[in-house]
Amino acid sequence: MAHQTIEQIIEDAEKEINGAADPRVLNDLSVKYLGRKGIITQYLRNVSDLPEEIRPEQGKKANQAKERLSKEIKQAERQLEEKRLVDIGGIDVSSPGRPMNIGTLHPITKMTAEICDTFIRLGFEVVEGPEVEKDYYNFEALNFPKDHPARDMQDTFFVSNDIVLRTHTSPMQVRVMEKHKPPLRIIAPGKVYRCDSDITHTPMFHQVEGMLVDENASFGDLKGILTAFIHQIFDEEISLRFRPSFFPFTEPSAEVDILCVICRGKGCRVCSHTGWLEVLGSGMVHPAVFENVGYDSSKYIGFAFGIGVERVAMLKYQVDDIRKYFENDSRFLRQF
Ligand code: DAH
C-alpha cells in the first residue's frame, strides 16, 4: 500500500465510489479513505518521510485528493437518495421546479388608489356602497325618471324590475346625502356594470365618483379641483377643456377632455384626429337631486364628477384595448 501513488489511490477510490449502491457502503468508503486511519490520511502522514524535493508537491496532491474524494462521496450519497425517492414513487426529482410567481397589485387597483389619493389630499373622504343597487338610487333619485331616454345611455343589467347592477357610482351621492348633512366632500370608488363589450368597453369596469356640497361651492372650484387632479395623474403641462354635456343629475354638465397624450393636440388615431381625449363627466348637482334627499336646494350648492378608472389607466399607460386589463395575462400585468 505504501508503494501506491496518490493517483492510484484516487483511481481505486473512485472505482469503489461509483460502484457503491448503498449509502452504507459509501459511509464505509469514507472511513476507509478519509477516516482517521484512512488511506489518504495515512498517506498524508507519510509525506513527511519523503525526500524534501517532492514533499510539498506530494502533500499538496494528497490534500487535493482528500477534498476531491470527499466531494465525490457526498455527491454519490445525494444521487442514491434521489434514486431512492424516485423508486418509492411520486417524486420526480429530475422534473423542473415550479416557478414561484410573486404577485403584484392589479394595475386597476393601483390606478384606483392613485386617483383616491389625489382626492384624499384635497380633503375628500372615501365611501363605498353596494354594486347590486335599487333602481331608485341608480336612476330615480338621480333625476332619471322612468322611461327617460337618458336611461338608454347606460345599458343596464337588471336583477329584477327595480333592482339593477349599478351602472355608475353616482348612486353613492344619494346614499351619502341621505345620511349626512352638508358640508360634504366624498369620493366613491368601485365596480360598475353595463351590458357592453368591445375594445373600449367591458361589462364590468371601475369608476371613482366625487361630490362636494357646501353653501358656496362654484363651477370654478370644480374646475380647480379637476385640474389639480389631472395634473397630478398625468403631468403639470397637460391642457384640459370643459365641454358642455348632459347628465340628468347635474346642471350645467361638462365632460372634461385632456389634450391627447399621444399627439399633444396634432390629431392621431388614438384621439380620432380631434386632438382631445375624454376623461370624465362632471357638473353642478341638479337641484332636483338635492330635493330628493331633503337638502334645501336654495341654500346648498355642489358639484360632482365621475371618473372612469380604466379610461384613465388606458390613457396614462397608452394601452389601446381595455380587455387587456382583464385577461389576466401575467406578461401584461407584471409591467405595472
Ligand atoms: N355617472 C356618469 C356616467 O357614468 C358620470 C358622471 C357624470 C358622474 C357627471 C358625475 C357627474 O358625478 O357629475 O356616465
Which cofactor or ligand species appear?
A: 3,4-dihydroxyphenylalanine
Helix-residue proportion: 25-40%
- CATH structural architecture of the largest domain: 2-Layer Sandwich
SS element count, helices: 11
Query: Can you tell me the number of structural domains?
Result: 2
Write the layout of secondary structure elements.
Layout: H1 6-19, H2 23-34, H3 39-46, H4 55-87, H5 107-121, E1 125-126, E2 132-134, H6 135-138, E3 158-160, E4 163-165, H7 171-179, E5 184-193, E6 204-214, H8 219-233, E7 240-247, E8 250-259, E9 276-285, H9 287-292, E10 301-308, H10 309-317, H11 330-333
Parallel strand pairs: 1-5
Antiparallel strand pairs: 2-4, 3-4, 5-6, 6-10, 7-8, 8-9, 9-10
Task: Describe, in plain words, how this protein is organized in 3D.
- There is one protein chain.
- This protein is α+β, with helices and mostly antiparallel strands.
- It folds into 2 domains: 82 residues, no CATH class; 227 residues, Bira Bifunctional Protein, Domain 2 (BirA Bifunctional Protein, domain 2, 2-Layer Sandwich), CATH 3.30.930.10.
- Helix content is 38%, strand content 20%.
- The strands form 2 sheets. Strands 1-5-6-10-9-8-7 form a 7-stranded mixed β-sheet, with helices on both faces.
- The structure holds 3,4-dihydroxyphenylalanine (DAH).
- The site of 3,4-dihydroxyphenylalanine has 12 residues, from strand 8, strand 9 and strand 10.
- The site of 3,4-dihydroxyphenylalanine (DAH) has 12 residues, from strand 8, strand 9 and strand 10.
